[in-house]
Amino acid sequence: MQPPRPKVSRSPDVLTRKKGGSSRGGSERLPDRTGSGSEGLPDRVALPSRPGRPPTHAERLVQARVAVVHPTQASAPVELDDSDLSPKTWNHCFDQKEDLRLPSRNATFRIYAAGLTQETSLAMVFLHGGGHCALSWAMVAERLKAYCAVLAFDARAHGNSFSEDENDLSAQTQVYDAAALIKAFFEERSMPVPKLVVCGHSMGGAIAVRLAASNLLDNVIGLVVIDVVEGTAMSALPYMSSWLQGRPKSFSSVSKAVKYVTRAGHVRNPDSARISVPPQMKYDDRIKRWVWRTRLEESETYWKGWFQGLSSSFLSVKAAKMLVLANVDRLDKDLMIAQMQGKFQNILIPAAGHTVHEDQPDETARVLLEYLQRNLFIERLDDSAETSVFQQRRPIPPCC
């Protein structure tokens, strides 16, 4: 789900980004892969501010500590012909798919997997956003499957997953769905559940946080949340219904739906949209047109529960945490303070829109891979590189 964002007034005061990371904090700047530093990107990032108020000292510190990723190319809405927007298959991204029936959940879930073997000791589990589907992670999975196992599944009432109660998208229901599905997937293969890094985007990020905090899975060692912050999400909810009402209700073809999604900027990468949009559509025989698979407006009663208390739940998780954002102004007060205390790593990919992992799959995969290496979840690929391990510190007492 991509909620409309409230307008943020920006102060004319700007700071040049700090060209180095702190040895103690969790926002060490990532090495530039473009070969020319900040080529193609502005050298300064405007700080969020209230009208008439300069940035606070805390806001300046946060900005100095946020790692900024420089993409190899900027991401922007594109203009393509319908012939360039035909659906693409997922086979080159994932190795297998399965429709797994869970009687305990009264549901059947579509799950995709790649890089899985009997010796698998680490798996990344990806949770998609509201209205999206598992294949929104396809291009990221393609880039990570050589390093660890990757799993992605359609949530209930999304994509190719079906349940007896399609309207129940509460956070609790989705958390129990995810835990039961992961256990059943590995049990079916006579494999123990490996160590898990749970990664979610938007609604899926909120569910990932609550899943990691629930202790339903006792081997979650990592948590990655992509472009969802409690304060921003809660302030956008009042506008969500009108946003959903404003989008087209049906399309004459799936290619037309892909064209709408890319032209509107919801997904800026047409290659990803050609994979992820088709499962978001279903054919309506009554009107002979393609309509949205998920009717998000019918789940409005659960929206607040997805995001309320998200920051405190995120910070309570003991696993190594990383927050990936498209814009620094999405940090709320609690996260600002915790980020300065080194409780989690914060990465900024400013060239992406809300669907960060689809707009910039290469940079997202690189960020995730370096996160896995930094926390020693996988071996570093370059033994000659300087070892830099992100260590989460204990909360600093107020007296200090």
UniProtKB/TrEMBL annotation:
Report the protein name in the record: protein phosphatase methylesterase-1
- Tell me which SUPFAM superfamilies the record gives: alpha/beta-Hydrolases (SSF53474)
**Which reactions is this enzyme annotated as catalysing?**
[phosphatase 2A protein]-C-terminal L-leucine methyl ester + H2O = [phosphatase 2A protein]-C-terminal L-leucine + methanol + H(+)
Enzyme Commission number(s): 3.1.1.89
Q: Name one GO molecular function term.
A: protein methylesterase activity
- Keywords assigned: Hydrolase, Serine esterase
Coiled-coil region(s): none
Q: Which residues form the signal peptide?
A: none
Using the UniProt annotation, give all residue ranges assigned to the region (Disordered): 1-57
State the species of origin.
Answer: Gracilariopsis chorda
Looking at the record, the residues that make up the AB hydrolase-1 domain are: 124-366
Which family does the similarity line name? Belongs to the AB hydrolase superfamily.
